[in-house]
Write a structure and sequence with these properties.
The structure is a homodimer. The first copy, chain A, is built from 6 helices and 3 strands. By secondary structure, chain A is mainly alpha-helical. The first copy, chain A, has a 3-stranded antiparallel beta sheet with strand order 1-3-2. The radius of gyration of chain A is 16 Å and the shape is globular. Chains A and B meet through helix 1, helix 2 and helix 5 of A and helix 1, helix 2 and helix 5 of B. The first copy, chain A, binds a DNA duplex through helix 4.
Chain lengths: 130, 130
DNA sequence: GCAATTCATAGTAATATTGCTATATTTGCA
DNA sequence: TGCAAATATAGCAATATTACTATGAATTGC
């Protein structure tokens, strides 16, 4: 059906999956990769590098923004995007916890709960680049 | 179009995105969560827990198997699934490298290359649970 | 051999995703 | 004010994904 039965899972499972889903497109990986090494970029910069139409890049940026992974600051006619560093390490920690929750000591069903990420940790649009 | 222009990206970007995509569904998170804490489970076990039809669970298991994250061993009429631990830590390392490749010292475009995962590291079907 | 159990596959329908073109919006500047 | 540049949104078409029912294949136990 194309529709996911989210009501069947815990909030933590849905959130973690949602984050991974956002990372599950090479364009968004490429955008994040560039941002991780250059601090701030405009939509135009990405469009020049990625060989996608500008609206398509804009769409990917919005998904990253909605996930809280990046923030955009309006600067004149362009928008400067940057990684939300706090959210970034939060997500990294959550994913690490999920990956590490193996071994005999881990109580059943706790790993994803511990690896939870807050759903909307920041104002999502036009937050100032730090 | 629903189709991703994979030819526009590097192999590493496509592979990392592909892995995240597999993790981008709560049913697969739930399956992995259970496997991480109980070692081996059959398809029936998952079906009993997740409130999806058995063929739907089977499909999710196949995607995890195709990604190399889990392996299945036929045992009588059932199939015992388990985490592929080696692949698991390989993927974790790749994702960590991607998340960590920030900072001023990281050369542009290297983070995802370093975070690369081999495309098909194991025989994918019916590998023995370790 | 035959029924029961377990899992996988085929086929289908509905929704989601991707990427495009065209257009609106916003800002800067002459 | 009016034009140009940069980005976002609307709308569309094509493919992907999800989940179902029905069915097939493999194995066990009688």
């Amino acid at each position: 059906m194309g529709i996911t039965k989210t009501e069947v899972y815990t909030d933590e499972q849905n959130r973690l999956a949602g984050l991974c889903k956002v990372l599950g497109h090479p364009a968004r990986i490429a955008i994040l990769e560039k941002l991780l090494t250059t601090d701030c970029c405009s939509c135009r910069d990405f469009t020049a590098e990625i060989d996608l139409a500008q609206p398509t890049v804009s769409r990917h940026l919005r998904e990253l923004k909605d996930a809280g992974l990046i923030a955009g600051t309006i600067e004149g006619t362009s928008v400067s995007y940057c990684i939300d560093r706090q959210r970034w390490s939060e997500v990294r920690a959550a994913i690490n916890l999920f990956f590490d929750c193996s071994g005999p000591g881990a109580p059943l069903g706790l790993c994803v709960a511990e690896a939870s990420v807050s759903p909307q940790p920041q104002p999502l649009r036009n937050r100032r680049c730090s």
